[in-house]
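Discussion board: Methods & Data

I've been asked by a reviewer to show the raw model output for two of the constructs in my manuscript, not just the figures. I'm not sure how much to include, so I'm pasting the format here to get opinions. Each protein appears as its amino acid sequence followed by a line of discrete structure tokens. Is this the kind of thing reviewers expect to see in a supplement, or should I convert it first? Here is construct A:
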Amino acid sequence: MDDHAEENTVEIHGDEEIIEVIDLNDTEPEPEDLADDLDNVDFEEAELEDDEGWETEDEMEAEAEQDDSELTFSKHTGSVFCVSLDPVTNSLAVTGGEDDKAYVWRVSDGEVLLECSGHKDSVTCAMFSHDSSLVASGDMSGLIKVWRVETKEEVWSFEVGDLEWLDWHPAAPVLMAGTNDGSVWMWKVPAGDCKTFQSPACQATCGRILPDGKRAAVGYEDGTVRVWDLKHGNAIHVVKGQDGHQGALTCLACNKDGSLLLTGSVDGSAKLISSSTGKVVGTFSVEGGKATGSRDEEESNSVEAVGFCSILPLIAVAFLDGTLAIFDLSTHVLRHKCLHQAGIVHLQWEESSSVVSTCSLDGALRLWDARSGGLLSEYRGHGAEILDFTVNREASLAVTASGDNRAKVFCLQRPDR
């Protein structure tokens, strides 16, 4: 709630706001009595007081029904957990949901081009290959399927342990996955050639193939970060101990050339790691350290999302308490704290600007100017939390996935565009 709203809210403490006490007689008042009472009321003053801090029922309904989206995709019959755009044209989206399905659909009109069925559990991972020709969908049970978009046929499938994440190679039809038992898998698709990376028996919570296509960074439940050589299958670097994270990894990002990694953890910190040396070169956190509404007093303010700005030396770190922190990458100084009303789920920097977008548990998508720390715009329309979102290359639209069983397309309009 902003400062103006707080100033306008009427609070009643004891008898302080009571203007007049009227004794009620046992008999019903006559119309003439009511008229006499009304003569003593200053209507102009009463209307002014009523308008301050109060919304009419119609206004409240209008706010609840606010929908800034251009299109709503409503084929899913359960929560929508993930969404991504095809990298070549940005015209197709794939969403995965609690209904054990993924859909490939056209962003312009919502038409379904492919229904990815046959899953045995909630589809929590869904994404296109680098050339947009293939789409992979993975469910919580570990069943992964790959579909050819043009022919709408399933071309490959594989079953692993409980799935945590999927990632496509940036330049080849190679798919990587991490599982709950710590296994990291890599396949050539659709040939099926397989390679596994020997990991400790703890959950591989997040990971991605680096831009050079030769290495992958993987974060684990014990706080360890490993940089893997994809060709030889060995860990080049293992980041752990006092300099590393002291809790499970939640998120991982890399800069444009893959020279730097940014990791987030339930320990309430983000770590900047050199992928070439494996050294931790920076640690980022914010004051507070407790998650808002946390039942466990010892629960830290978990980092939920991280990312690098492409055009300025800035990074963004999003926390469970609703704080988006913008840090200067060269000095490690905190530049701005952008506060949300609820925990942040995901963030994404625009490709060619200093604007970072966030989605949160209050169901809103927000755009922030990282230079000033100011809120540029806010988009609403979901009836539940936003669980994932993605922004296209031109930063002209965003596609969101929500717990209200819907995905939405928002047109991102700003005065400077």
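Construct B, same format:
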Amino acid sequence: MRGPESKRLQILTPPPHLPNSQLLLLPPPAFPDIPLTLTSSPPTNISPLVTKIDRYILLLFLRTVFICFCSISGIFVVFHAFTSMDELVKQGQEQDGLVLVMCRFYGPYLLLLFDWTGAIITLMAFLFTVGWLRRTGELTSTLAAGISHGRLLRPMIIASLLIVLAQLSSRELLLPSYRDALSMKAKDITGESEQPILAQYDKVNRVLIDGKSLIAQSGRVIEPSFRLDGEYPGYGDLLLARSGVWMEASADHPGGYLLDGVQRPEDIDALPSVGIASRPILYSSSDQAWLKPRQCFFATTVHVDLLQTNQSATRMASVMELIGRVKNPAVHSSLSLQVLLHERIIRPALDFSLILLGLPLVVNRRGRNLFVMIAAAMGTVLAFFVIKTLCGALGGNGYWLSPAMAAWLPLIILGPLAYLRYRDVQLV
């Protein structure tokens, strides 16, 4: 510690214009007692997580995906609109105009097209993006700087995973609400046209649910005809009505069909409600105040969606709905439906595996032409779907494979192969 009593002096060199005999004798400066701390400056050799080249490649890749999807969507809309232009123009004159009618009609189809082709478009975008970088010489200069293919492809792989997750969200949250619109023709865009009905047998209540036709969007059955095989005293063996509509469960009743204009049995208003044990099945207006005369309510777990002949409505159901159908004891759960359930669960992993299978084609060590790489990628996609379709057919028909094994076997085969190809690209 330096104090004022220190006798040490500091000798300073005189300026050049002073004689050597004149020396300036000054006391040393006083320094405060501040502890000495060492501060380390942040290292400057740490690279950011997202570099400029990452943003450039990511923007180029996403733009390629968007262009490819717009091209496929445009081809689909143009060809379909030419075959249905008369109906669309007629609907446009009656409603809000041709443009809004086409948006309302083709919007759900674009979601379905994205669900079908998202993984394939992503794989093609990989090839086009890397091909463009190679053609402009940017890939060569980047590799010459010591950046590996794995580091170069990382932003596109992450973007591909996000695209697969976007497909999953669309498939589970958006498509189920548009499945009725996707099953309609252009002339039926209002959703009020009648469709054939697929009879379903309620195994729990022992009732065959049938009718003349079905309006799926409003859940209405035209001229329902329910065959009663169970013990329902006074109701006979047949329940006929003018119309029936599906009603969700409420405080007054469980889910089921409200039949209006009951024609048989004729004395429906005098019959009491009946059921099995303490569970009512057929409700009548004699003891149910919320029912009007000539009305009857049939409680069942056979939803109106199960009455559609168009199987695409089942394929566009969400995973939770498929689980509910498989566990529903009132309807028969086919092997193909169980295979579909497991396929929907592993679909994101399979789509991402398909993208990773094409990575060696993107690296293109042999210097093959872009069109040759595209052909090889299409061959990879074809082999992927052949394996998936073959396993699904074997499981759906009960040959050799159970439904669960038939759905998971493609991932068991292709998943490790996709990972090996991904690791192979990381080392190049």
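Answer (T.O., handling editor elsewhere):
This is acceptable in a supplement if you add a one-line summary per construct. For B, something like: Confidence is low (pLDDT under 50) at residues 1-13, 21-26, 36-41.
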